[in-house]
Amino acid sequence: MLNFTIRRLVLSIPTLLFISLVIFMLLQLAPGDPMAQVPLTVPPEVKQKMREALGLGAPVHIQYIKWLHQFFIVEPSVFIDHLTANSFLLGWLPDTHLSMTVDTVTGELVQRQRVISWQTRSPVMDIVIQRMPQTIWVVGLSYVVGILIAIPIGIYSAYRHYSVFDQAGTFITMVGFSIPPFFTGPLLIVIFSVSLGWLPSIYDTTLVVDSWATFKTQVMQMIMPVMVLALQTTAQISRYMRSAMLDNLNQDYVRTARAKGLKESVVIMVHVLRNSMIPVVTVIALGMPAIFGGAIITENVFKVNGIGQLLLTALFANDLPMVMTLTFIFAILIVLFNLIADILYGVLDPRIRYD
How far is residue 113's CA from residue 247's CA, in Å, rounded to a whole number? Predict the structure, then answer.
């Protein structure tokens, strides 16, 4: 297993480099100019200097190499220095967008530019870190809630297939699959915020939870966005869980376990469930990057100041460094969780070996 993990990690390096190149070239073809929002009163020579400061005057391949250096060298050194609260790597300069390093030839300090957002003129990773807690709170919690609801529903629906419970679960999952968040979100707002007045319609990202009253407010404002997102997660995973359980309930090893006199709960929850989790693990693992990617539609409906809203704003503003960085982070997460899913296969099923 260790050799397999190392091979996959090594193979992921050229894969991610190729993905970054494809994303970069596609964004270069996107229309628009970051200087379009600059007032017309700004002289052309000033605009040209601004373009050069943003790195737009260099050839495309130089811009790509510069972005790779910033993303893989400069930003990690800044992050490590921030964690250690010192200049362990001679990293970041407070209140600036620059990082410092020592030139290996001359031994002098050299400034290194971080990845800067064209829209806000501030480091991209700083903005991402600021937005991440809101996304993890809402999207992450909804994903956990959806999984905790979906797995028991899928297990019982398979065990009592074609029962009233199974038919009701099938109806609910079809609704969850069919109705998009931009419909369920406003619908919940109309019912619970406008008509009943029970829940707030706008998510307050500036709320500081430091008392029981603020904790209650935080829970109340999270209910609707979590419900919208959890409905989709429950609909997807419960169907996979039911299908996998049905495939295993008729296997020979299940009849053998029952013939040995094992309790039905042991047969279902130990033997059948473990083998049935293999395809479900894939769905759960591939859905994990969406937690960090945010829910673009739901975050905009409830005004959650998270990563999804940040990506949409960057797309409208033609903020290519922000879009490039966020998209590549999603690609890294997808590759990483694919590897985690493959490793979990071997844990769940001893027959699977990566020799």
Answer: 55
Give the Cα separation of 203 and 223 in Å (integer).
10
Q: Amino acid identity, residue 125?
A: M
CA–CA separation, 233 vs 135, rounded Å?
A: 16
CB atoms within 10 A of CB 193: 17
Cα gap 236→234, rounded to integer Å: 6
The full set of domains in the chain, from first to last, is 38-122 (no CATH), 131-348 (1.10.3720.10)
SS3 99: strand
How far is 242 from 158, CA to CA, in rounded Å? 5
Q: Report which secondary-structure segment, H or E, holds 109.
A: strand 109-113
**pTM, entire model:** 0.75
Q: Residue 215 and residue 224: Cα distance in Å, rounded?
A: 16
Helix (H, G, I), strand (E, B) or coil at 229: helix
Contact 280, 241 (CB under 8 A): yes
CA pair distance 257, 264, nearest whole angstrom: 9
pLDDT block averages, 10 residues each, the chain of length 355: 77 87 82 62 67 67 83 80 61 47 45 74 84 83 89 88 85 81 84 85 78 85 86 86 86 84 83 82 79 72 82 81 86 84 72 61
Residue keyed to tokens 């293999």 = 278
Of all helices (H) and strands (E), which one includes residue 111?
strand 109-113
Residue 197, Ramachandran bin (φ over 0: left; ψ between -120 and 50: alpha; else beta): left
CA atoms within 13 A on the CB side of 254: 19
CA 181 to each of CA 2, 176, 215: distance values in angstroms, whole numbers, following the listed order = 41, 9, 26
Of the candidates 163, 155, 146, 166, the residue with the CA atom closest to the CA atom of residue 271: 155
Provide the 10 A C-beta neighbour count for residue 7.
11
How much is the pLDDT for 16? 87
